[in-house]
Amino acid sequence: MHGESSRGSFVAVQRWVHDLDAVDRLTVAARAAAVGRDPETDVELADAPASAHVKRTAQESFESPAFIVRRSMPYGGIREHGLNFVAFGESLDRFERQLRRMAGRDDGVRDGILAFTRAVSGAYYFCPPLRQGRCDLSAFGG
């Protein structure tokens, strides 16, 4: 293995809880603006506001692109609904830059979805590199 991929990767895991009463109080247009996608087609809105989630987390829009692999899965029960989120990347920096932008730390513009969802837990994990199908800890003194 060569370059950055030989150093392993990082996983960020979060659980987000949605305030469904707050979502219900929003108009369809306000929901679309918060996310930045048409709720029926899931197509990104060309005229989405700067606060739209898709604009706040657009990986290619960072000065140094912040590409990560990210996936989410909704969950829900009688008392709580939300999203389990997982992101994979070669560094934690890319994920943390996206979080800072969502919070408005760089330009004062908060992500629109923060009006109805909040992260309640999170963790980072390190995934060591593999060599011949086994963990290769040689670069870490192992």
List the helices and strands and how they pair.
Elements: E1 9-18, H1 20-25, H2 28-35, H3 53-56, E2 69-76, E3 81-89, H4 92-102, E4 117-127, E5 130-131, E6 134-135
Antiparallel strand pairs: 1-3, 1-4, 2-3, 5-6
For the biggest β-sheet, the strand order reads: 2-3-1-4
**Low-pLDDT regions:** 1-5
* Radius of gyration of CA atoms, rounded to a whole number: 18 Å
Give me the strand/helix succession.
EHHHEEHEEE
Q: How many separate domains make up the residues? A: 1
What is the molecular shape? globular
CATH superfamily: Apc35880, domain 1
Architecture (CATH level 2) name: 2-Layer Sandwich
Instruction: Say what the CATH topology is.
Output: Alpha-Beta Plaits
Q: Tally the helices.
A: 4
Q: What does the average pLDDT come to?
A: 91
Biggest sheet record: 4 strands, antiparallel
Count the strands?
Answer: 6
Oligomeric state of shown chains? single chain
Helix content bin: 10-25%
Q: Could you tell me the strand content as a percent range? A: 25-35%
Structural class: alpha+beta
CATH secondary-structure class:
Alpha Beta
